[in-house]
Amino acid sequence: MRRRQQLMKEVSVVLVGIGGYGNKYVEYILREGREKGVRISGVVDPYPQNSRFYDELRSLNVPMYNTLEEFYSHHTADLAIISSPIHYHCEQTCTAVRNGSHVLCEKPAAATVKEVKKMIECREKYGKIVAIGYQWSYNPAVLKLKEDILAGKFGKPVLFKTLVLWPRDTAYYRRNSWAGKLKVNNRWVLDSVAGNATAHFLHNMLFLLGEKMEESAYPESIVAELYRANDIESFDTCALKMTVRKIPVLFFATHAVKERKGPVFEYRFEKARVICNYPEYPESEENLLVVYEDGRKEIYGPTDHGSMRKLWVVVDAVRGQKEFICTLESAMAHTIAINEAHVSMKEIQDFPTELKRVEGEPPLIWVEGLKEAMERAYEEEKIFSELNLPWAKRGEEVKLENFEGLEGEITC
């Protein structure tokens, strides 16, 4: 082990955003960085004191800056890890590659398709790696599953669907200045239940439908239904009906329920189903389980939503080792879906006041009957308007061939 450590090229890292999810990167690098040859060369965060590891970083004399430009005026870094708010992803990724750093940027890649395309342009111009942190795309079980999908082991895909019921109280929307926002300072954010908290599960369906290991499939069309129970700009509940590679792909997610459930999903093929978190199959709890037509079952492994494998994979890629990473092109599939959803339903619908309930401290706002409606929609493979629910409103169909993305300022 000592000999291997001596041969490893040290990778210097600048951490951009060390509060919120950024705490996890700090934790893992402080805990395992020395063994894995990773050194923190600086931190960029206007409020570093909000990090759980602020005092420890100070004791290690890690330099701290308000902006990435300030950092690069004094230092260099092999890798920039960007965990900042969504509306800074494009700008900071481009700044990092211009200054010679590879990038690991948290999901989503950016708020808009135009921003992701700008990030791709910068990556190509400066010849750097830009990886996006959809951790399921680094998961060994998911990657093995995709290899077998591409090899035709399960036959052709027939239908993919996912259900996620994740309650979030009002403190969730007060945790920062951009939570639940569509825009901040005229920059698109598009923070929502599908755009952020459950983005992994939407992206995973598109990733597994990609025709190569490194590719995701882009939605050919989408009809969205977007709703909110909370007092926010964006949506906390959605039903998305997409066509991807000519098959139906359904995504249901909400924060406006009392009970947590999911992600529950079924990826249906000609010869098998891939399922997760189905009560009738106990071995599918937090596991990818394949159920074949003849009743055989095969466990591919845990989904491991909290994994930080992506960090060490990207570190090895920076060292020049051939490692699989989630690319900007792959991540853009999710951004396309979210942008299309907002175009499909330009006016987010408020749930009827008489259906909203408030309880707990901090208060949780939930919608009477929504859990049952979402479970029914998932089972019947229909969106809410197709179930004739009185509060449901169908969005317009948006097709990728005519889709230019959202209009707005590109600052990166």
Automatic annotation (TrEMBL):
GO terms for molecular function: nucleotide binding. InterPro entries: Gfo/Idh/MocA-like_OxRdtase_N, Gfo/Idh/MocA_Oxidoreductase, NAD(P)-bd_dom_sf. SUPFAM superfamilies: Glyceraldehyde-3-phosphate dehydrogenase-like, C-terminal domain, NAD(P)-binding Rossmann-fold domains. Coiled coil: none annotated. Residues 12-134 form the Gfo/Idh/MocA-like oxidoreductase N-terminal domain. PANTHER family: D-GLUCOSIDE 3-DEHYDROGENASE (PTHR43249:SF1), UDP-N-ACETYL-2-AMINO-2-DEOXY-D-GLUCURONATE OXIDASE (PTHR43249). This is Oxidoreductase domain protein.
